[in-house]
Design a protein that fits this description.
Layout: H1 5-17, H2 21-32, H3 36-44, E1 54-57, H4 67-84, H5 88-91, E2 93-97, H6 103-116, E3 121-123, H7 132-140, E4 144-148, E5 157-164, H8 174-184, E6 204-205, H9 208-219, H10 226-229, E7 236-239, H11 245-256, E8 262-263, H12 286-298, E9 303-307, E10 314-319, E11 325-327, H13 330-348, E12 357-362, H14 368-376, E13 379-383, H15 387-399, E14 403-409, E15 413-416, H16 425-442, H17 447-458, E16 462-469, H18 473-484, E17 495-496, E18 499-506, E19 511-512, E20 530-535, E21 539-545, E22 551-558, H19 568-587, H20 589-592, E23 595-596
Parallel strand pairs: 2-3, 2-4, 3-6, 7-8, 7-9, 12-13, 12-14
Antiparallel strand pairs: 1-5, 4-5, 9-10, 10-11, 14-15, 16-22, 16-23, 17-18, 18-19, 18-20, 20-21, 21-22
GO molecular function: magnesium ion binding; phosphopentomutase activity
Organism: Pinctada imbricata
Protein name: Phosphoglucomutase-2
C-alpha cells in the first residue's frame, strides 16, 4: 500500500509470524481491499495486558485475541516467571479453559510455550469453571494459573486471566512486570506453534479428576445442614447460560446432599454461540432468565440458580406469592449470603472471637456488610473494584491468622469461604440452596422476606445500578473532565440537581475531601475513571469505567439516616429521582451520544 510504510511493515511482520491460515487470510483480505483504517486498528494498536489479563474480540491483529497474541503473551509470562521465581520449573502452572470458540486451542498453545521452557503444566483435559484454576493453584502450590475465558462477554470475545501463586488474580507490580516482559520478545519461537507436543509431554498433567474430588471435599466445609438438604422441599431450576457449569454443579449437589436441579435444557450444555440469549450474562435480568423462568414455572420450581458461562458468578431468583419472579440483585444476594455466612458460622462456632472474623466487599458494592459487622462485632473491609483486590486482601488476612467468611461484589460475584480466593458461582449456588432450604423449613419464611428482615434489623440499603455504552474513550474522558471542572468552575460539583454533595472521592486523580489531607485511603489509578459522591441525605454514588467492556457504569446506594424517618417506598422514590439527576447533570447522554442499557 503506497505511502503507508508503517502499515506495510506491520503487515509483513504479521504474515511472517502468524502460522494460522485463518487469521493470515483476514489480514491478506484487508490488504487486498485496501482497508487501511481496519489494518491500523488491528496492527498498530495492541491489547493492554493488565490486572484483568487480556479480554478482547477474537480475530487477526495485535489488538485482538488469536494464536499469535496468545503465544506472545505466554512467552512474556513465561519469561517473567523464570526471571522472578527460581522454583517455577518445579511448581508448574495451572491452565484451564471454558467452552468459547478457540478456548481449548488457546489453552494448548499456552501449555506448549510453558512446556518448551521446562515448566510443568496442569492442563485440564476438559472445559472447567474458572474457580477450578485458582483452586488448583493452591492445591498444587503452583507458581501461577491461567484461565482462557471471557466470562459473560459476547460470543465474539475471549480472554486470558492470570492468577499468582497465592491463588488470587494478579495485581501490581506483577501485571506491569508481565506486560513489560511480553514487549521484550514479541517474535514467536517456532516451537511455540506446535501444540501437539503437549499431548505426550512428561511435563503435562491432567488435574481434572483430582481437583474435582478435592474441590468438592473442601466444599463440604460450607455445608452446615446436610441432613436437612436431603429432604429439601424446594425444587431448584438451574441454567448454565450455555456455559460449563451444569456437570460441576451436579457434583457439588452431591456434596450438599441435594437432588439434581431441574436443568434449563436449551441452555445447560456448553455452546459458544450462546444461541438463546442476547448477552450470556444472568446479571441482565429477565431477558437473560426468561427461559429459566419458563422452565421453573413448568416444573413448579420456586428458586432459580443461574451461572454465567464460566460459572464464577451466580444470579438467583424466587417466585413470589403473587406469581411474579423476584430476581435478586448482586447487592441483595450479597446481603443474604453475608447474613447467612455469619448466622451459620456463629451457630457452629458459638465461642468464636468475632473480631478475628472478616467480610469484604468492593467499594461500588452495598455497604450492608458494614452494617451487619457493626451490629454483630466482626470486621468489614472495603477494597477497590474487582475480586483481584478482595482475593489478595483475603490472602493477607489468612496469613495473619484471621478468618475470612465471605466477600462479594455487586456484579453477582461471591466468595464463600477461602478454598477459592476469587468469585465462585458453583460454591455460591450450593450455599444459596442451603440457605433457601433452611429459610423455608426452619424459619418458615422466603428468601425475599428474609432480605426484608435483614434490612429491618440492619438498616435500609437500597441500590440502583446501571450503565451507558460508549465505544469512544476520548468522549468518556471528556465526560469525567467536565465533572472535575463542573460548569467551568474549576471544581467538582457541590450539588446534583436539588441534592447537596457532602464529599467527593476521585480515585483517578487521588482526591478525597472527606480526609484531612484530601488523600484517599484506597489506591488510585490514572488508567481508569472512578469518582464517588457522598450526598448529605446518605446516598452514595460511584461513576466508573469498566476495565473489560465499553461501559460507563453508575452504582448508587441509599442508606437514609433513621432520623429522616423515611419509609422504604419513600427511600426508593428518592433514590430513583437522584439517579435521574445523576444521568441528567453528570452523564448528559444526549450531549455525548451515550447508549442506554437496554432493559
Amino acid at each position: 500500500m503506497s505511502g503507508n510504510e508503517e502499515i506495510n511493515a506491520k503487515v509483513k511482520e504479521w504474515l511472517d509470524w502468524d502460522k494460522n491460515v485463518t487469521t493470515r487470510a483476514e489480514i491478506e483480505e484487508l490488504v487486498a481491499t485496501n482497508n487501511v483504517d481496519e489494518l491500523k486498528n488491528r496492527l498498530l494498536k495492541r491489547m493492554e495486558f493488565g490486572t484483568a489479563g487480556l479480554r478482547a474480540r477474537m480475530g487477526a491483529g495485535y489488538s485482538q485475541m488469536n494464536d499469535l497474541t496468545i503465544i506472545q503473551t505466554t512467552q512474556g509470562l513465561t519469561k517473567y516467571l523464570l526471571d522472578t521465581n527460581d522454583n517455577v520449573q518445579r511448581q508448574g502452572v495451572v491452565v484451564g479453559y471454558d467452552g468459547r470458540h478457540n478456548s481449548e486451542r488457546f489453552a494448548w498453545l499456552t501449555a506448549a510455550v510453558l512446556i518448551n521452557k521446562g515448566i510443568p503444566v496442569f492442563l485440564y483435559s476438559n472445559l472447567c469453571p474458572t474457580p477450578y484454576v485458582p483452586y488448583a493453584v493452591l492445591f498444587y502450590k503452583a507458581a501461577a494459573g491461567i484461565m482462557v475465558t471471557a466470562s459473560h462477554n459476547p460470543k465474539e470475545d475471549n480472554g486470558y486471566k492470570v492468577y499468582w501463586d497465592n491463588g488470587a488474580q494478579i495485581i501490581s507490580p506483577v501485571d506491569k512486570g508481565i506486560a513489560a516482559a511480553i514487549m521484550e520478545k514479541l517474535e514467536p519461537e517456532v516451537t511455540s506453534w506446535d501444540a501437539s507436543i503437549v499431548e505426550n509431554s512428561p511435563l503435562r498433567k491432567d488435574p481434572l479428576s483430582e481437583i474435582s474430588r478435592s474441590y468438592n471435599e473442601d466444599l463440604g466445609k460450607l455445608c452446615y445442614y446436610r441432613n436437612q438438604n436431603s429432604s429439601s422441599p424446594i425444587k431448584f431450576t438451574y441454567t448454565a447460560m450455555h456455559g460449563v457449569g451444569y456437570e460441576y454443579v451436579r457434583a457439588a449437589c452431591k456434596t450438599f446432599a441435594f437432588s439434581d436441579p431441574v436443568p434449563v435444557i436449551e441452555q445447560v450444555m456448553p455452546d459458544p454461540e450462546f444461541p438463546t440469549v442476547t448477552y450470556p450474562n444472568p446479571e441482565e435480568g429477565k431477558g437473560a432468565l426468561s427461559m429459566s423462568i419458563n422452565t421453573a414455572d413448568a416444573n413448579e420450581s420456586m428458586v432459580i440458580l443461574a451461572n454465567d458461562p464460566d460459572a464464577d458468578r451466580l444470579a438467583i431468583a424466587e417466585k413470589q406469592p403473587s406469581g411474579k419472579w423476584h430476581i435478586f440483585s448482586g447487592n441483595e444476594t450479597g446481603a443474604l449470603l453475608g447474613w447467612w455466612s455469619w448466622f451459620s458460622y456463629k451457630r457452629k462456632n458459638p465461642d468464636v472471637n468475632a473480631s478475628d472474623c472478616y467480610m469484604l466487599a468492593s467499594t461500588v458494592s452495598s455497604k450492608i456488610l458494614q452494617a451487619i459487622a457493626d451490629y454483630e462485632g466482626f470486621k468489614f473491609e472495603e477494597t477497590l473494584t474487582g475480586f483481584k483486590w478482595m482475593g489478595n486482601r483475603s490472602h493477607d488476612l489468612l496469613r495473619q491468622g484471621k478468618t475470612v467468611l465471605f466477600a462479594f461484589e455487586e456484579a453477582i460475584g461471591f466468595m464463600c469461604g477461602t478454598s477459592v480466593l476469587d468469585k465462585d458461582g458453583v460454591s455460591a449456588a450450593m450455599v444459596c440452596s442451603e440457605m433457601a432450604t433452611y429459610l423455608y423449613t426452619q424459619m418458615n419464611t422466603t428468601i425475599y422476606d428474609q432480605l426484608q428482615a435483614i434490612y429491618k434489623k440492619y438498616g435500609f440499603h437500597i441500590s440502583s445500578n446501571s450503565y451507558y455504552i460508549c465505544h469512544d474513550p476520548p468522549t468518556i474522558q471528556k465526560m469525567f473532565d467536565d465533572i472535575r471542572n463542573y460548569q467551568g468552575s474549576g471544581k467538582y460539583p457541590e450539588t446534583c440537581g436539588p441534592y447537596k454533595i457532602k464529599y467527593v472521592r476521585d480515585l483517578t486523580v487521588g482526591y478525597d475531601n472527606s480526609k484531612p489531607d484530601n488523600k484517599p485511603t484506597l489506591p488510585t489509578s490514572k488508567s481508569s475513571q472512578m469518582i464517588t459522591f457522598t450526598f448529605e441525605n446518605g446516598c452514595v454514588a460511584t461513576l466508573r469505567t469498566s476495565g473489560t467492556e465499553p461501559k460507563i457504569k453508575y452504582y448508587t446506594e441509599h442508606r437514609p439516616d433513621p432520623k429522616q424517618d423515611l419509609d422504604l417506598d419513600s427511600a426508593k422514590n428518592e433514590l430513583e429521582d437522584m439517579v435521574q439527576c445523576i444521568v441528567t447533570y453528570f452523564y448528559q447522554p444526549e450531549k455525548f451520544g451515550f447508549i442506554a442499557r437496554q432493559p
